[in-house]
Amino acid sequence: MKVDVVALPRDELNPDAKPKITCSRYSTFTVKEIDLGEVGAEKLVLLAADAPCERAGERERVIEDDTAGYVMGVSAGFVFFRAADGWNGGLPFVVYDSATGERLLDDSLEGESFGAIRSGKGELTLDFRRVYTASCSLYLQGTACAKAIAADTGLQPKQLPDCTSAYKAEMRRSPEHAKEIEKLPSVIVYPVELSYAAGETVRRPMDGTTACRTPS
């Protein structure tokens, strides 16, 4: 409905930063982000729709979450926060309930936006390219790792990418560490539909290209 931005005093030790408070107001709540120009917001808060946009307030529900670095957006009563930095080529994110302040789900997406978002009362569906880090090396362990990934993601063996080129490229860059590199867990990128309802999260792989990476 409205966005209030309040500039904060500059920090002499960080003159290039533009510290500010941003209050994004919706019909039943407000999301406040205090950004001092460092990596990650200093504070992320859920509060009343008509709460003043100030550094310290009353009745704040502070989001204390290692993944939540910045406000990402809102859909219906779901509040999205993204990580301050990417991980393994993906952007980790978390989703909170605006009414309760409860953390509902987390995942990691390729890029910075979703293919589609569908939301209603207590229900949320997201389409995106998921960045999934396996517990094993698909390059080194082959079939055994493929079975573990399939069990965890729902991807069929025929949908899994060939990891050879990704691992070989990394080995060429650091040949002295080749034995360690081949053991690295595989990072699989694939299209997924994530559905949340009644406290349950279900991920369903969709048709589309998959890719394999090494951790970064």
Q: Which key terms come to mind for this protein?
A:
flat, five-stranded antiparallel beta sheet, 216 residues, 4 helices, mainly beta, 13% helix
**Could you tell me the number of beta strands?**
14
Output the number of helix runs. Answer: 4
Structural class: mainly beta
Please state roughly what percent of the residues sit in beta strands, choosing from under 5%, 5-15%, 15-25%, 25-35%, 35-45% or over 45%: 35-45%
Main pleated-sheet profile: 5 strands, antiparallel
> How would you state the average pLDDT, rounded?
95
Compute the separation of the termini in Å: 39 Å
Order of neighbouring strands in the sheet with most strands: 1-2-3-4-5
The whole-angstrom Rg is 20 Å
Poorly predicted runs of 5 or more residues? none
Shape: flat
Name the helix and strand elements from N-terminus to C-terminus, one letter apiece. EEEEEEEEEEEHHHHEEE
User: Helicity level, as a percent range?
Assistant: 10-25%
Question: Short description, anyone?
Answer:
With 216 residues, the chain is mainly beta. It is built from four helices and 14 strands. A hairpin with a 4-residue loop joins β2 and β3 (30-35).
Helix and strand arrangement:
Layout: E1 2-7, E2 20-25, E3 30-35, E4 43-47, E5 61-62, E6 70-75, E7 78-82, E8 91-97, E9 103-109, E10 116-120, E11 123-133, H1 138-141, H2 143-153, H3 164-173, H4 178-181, E12 187-197, E13 200-205, E14 211-213
Antiparallel strand pairs: 1-2, 2-3, 3-4, 4-5, 6-7, 7-8, 8-9, 10-11, 11-12, 12-13, 12-14
